[in-house]
Amino acid sequence: MAQQATKKKSNSKIETQSSLLSKEKIALVYKYDKKSNTDNKLELSTEARPEKPHLAFCIKGKSAKEKGYNNLLSAMICNIFGVTEPNVASSIFNDCVNAILDTTSFLNMPPEQAKRGLERIVTDTLSLFKEFCPRDVFELMMVSKLIILHFMSNKEFISSSLASCLETRGMHQSRAIKLSRLWLEFKEKLDKHRKPDQQITVEHVHINNSGQAIIGSQLHAGGG
């Protein structure tokens, strides 16, 4: 009974989110939440080694003071990331972006260049989540790993092409290949989750002497 009540509540929440989204189409953007800054643009600290950004969703062209803003924002986040709790989506997205930033020289860039780099990474990452279109929290976590592996393998392939030393080039190529294989493994798991193995049972009907029909599975035995 408790599980049914929880499922009913979750379905009700999803229906409410769907009704909100059907009324208005608005693009999501991300902002770098720096102290009291509340605008919609990505901003980066000008310190020599800024801390990893904590990103927060906001709706482009909308004021947070508008009526129903928070409900609409939650509905949009849940619609894109396939979950019922926007905080879960935000947490996973932040972890994904920060993991990607760890593979770059982001912290050593000049402030303006770092800002542009952050904007590109955030935009590309959000676009990839939209393209994968996760349907539940499991798919969301799998997609997050796929995106991280995608960036990591690309970095290794680029490093390989730029390496002048044959040994260094081979090292980066080896890493890139391993990451690409791991990406394929996760992709296969995601595909299997989305399309579980289908079992087809072929049945036949027996008519006995009394005229009753008996349905049974058909068995094929190999003979010599």
Q: How would you portray this structure in words?
A:
This protein is mainly α and 224 residues long. It has one domain (2-217). The protein is 57% helix and 9% strand. The chain is built from 6 helices and 4 strands; from the N terminus they run H-E-E-H-H-H-H-H-E-E. The protein has helices spanning 2-23, 69-81, 86-101, 111-132, 137-162, 166-194, and strands at 28-32, 55-59, 203-207, 213-217. The strands form 2 sheets. Strands 1-2 form a two-stranded antiparallel ribbon. The protein has a two-stranded antiparallel ribbon with strand order 3-4. Strand 3 (203-207) and strand 4 (213-217) form a beta hairpin. Helix 5 (137-162) runs antiparallel to helix 6 (166-194).
Summarize this entry quickly.
The protein has 224 residues and is mainly alpha-helical.
Keywords, please?
mainly alpha; disordered C terminus; two-stranded antiparallel sheet; 224 residues
Task: Present the secondary structure layout.
Elements: H1 2-23, E1 28-32, E2 55-59, H2 69-81, H3 86-101, H4 111-132, H5 137-162, H6 166-194, E3 203-207, E4 213-217
Antiparallel strand pairs: 1-2, 3-4
Q: Return residue spans where pLDDT drops below 50 for at least 5 consecutive residues.
A: 20-24, 34-50, 218-224
Compute the CA-based radius of gyration: 25 Å
Order of helices and strands: HEEHHHHHEE
Q: Calculate the terminal CA-CA distance, rounded to whole Å.
A: 55 Å
Q: Structural class, from helix and strand content?
A: mainly alpha
- In oligomeric terms, what are we looking at? single chain
Broad shape: flat
Q: Give the fraction of residues assigned to helices.
A: 55-70%
Q: Order of strands across the biggest sheet?
A: 1-2
The residue-averaged pLDDT reads 75
Q: Can you tell me the number of structural domains?
A: 1
Q: How many DSSP E strands?
A: 4
